[in-house]
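Box 3.1. Reading complex inputs
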Amino acid sequence: QKEVEQNSGPLSVPEGAIASLNCTYSDRGSQSFFWYRQYSGKSPELIMSIYSNGDQEDGRFTAQLNKASQYVSLLIRDSQPSDSATYLCAVLWGDNFNKFYFGSGTKLNVKP
Amino acid sequence: DGGITQSPKYLFRKEGQNVTLSCEQNLNHDAMYWYRQDPGQGLRLIYYSQIVNDFQKGDIAEGYSVSREKKESFPLTVTSAQKNPTAFYLCASSPGGAGRAFFGQGTRLTVV
C-alpha cells in the first residue's frame, strides 16, 4: 500500500507569518505531487502542483519537492485567517500514474 | 460551465438499503475516481476508471460497486454489504497523464 504521511496538526501561526506544511511519501516512482486546500464540509481545491525537484511559486504559495528524500512541502507566506483550512498532500501513482493517493491532511489555524 | 456534478448533496440510507450516488462531468476527462472521507481523515480511494467500460478497485472497494457506461458518468452504489457507510463521498476526474484531479462538491451519506 502506498503511503502519504502528513502531520495532522493543528498548526497555529499568527497572521502575517509563514506557515510550513510537510508531506512524505513511500514510493520513489511517483512523478506528480499536489497540494489541495479543504475547508470544513467542502470539497478539496487545488493550490499547487509540482513535478520536478526544487521550488514552484504561485503568489503567496511555494511548493518544494525533494524526490531523493521523498518529501514535499508547502509554504504559505503572509498567512491570512482565510487560509485556515485543512491542507491535503496528494501523490499520483499507478502503472500509468492513474491513482491519486492523499495524506490525512494538516489543519492550519491562522490567528488574527 | 465545465465541472463535476455530484448529487444528491445529502443522502440518508436505512439499514439494509442500497443507494446510488451520482457523478457527472463535462470536462471530457478520461479518468474518474470515487473517494471516501471520514471525519478528520484523508481521502481513501474506493474505485477508479480510466476508460469507458473499465474500472478498478481502490483500497476500500468492499461493499461498493460502480459502472462506467458513459465517459461523463461514474455512479457509485453503496450496498447493504457496506456496514459503516456514513461518510463524505467525493467524486473526481482527471484528464489523465500527470494532470490534476478535479473534485465535485461531495455527497454526505448518513445511515438512519
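In summary: The mean pLDDT of chain B is 93.
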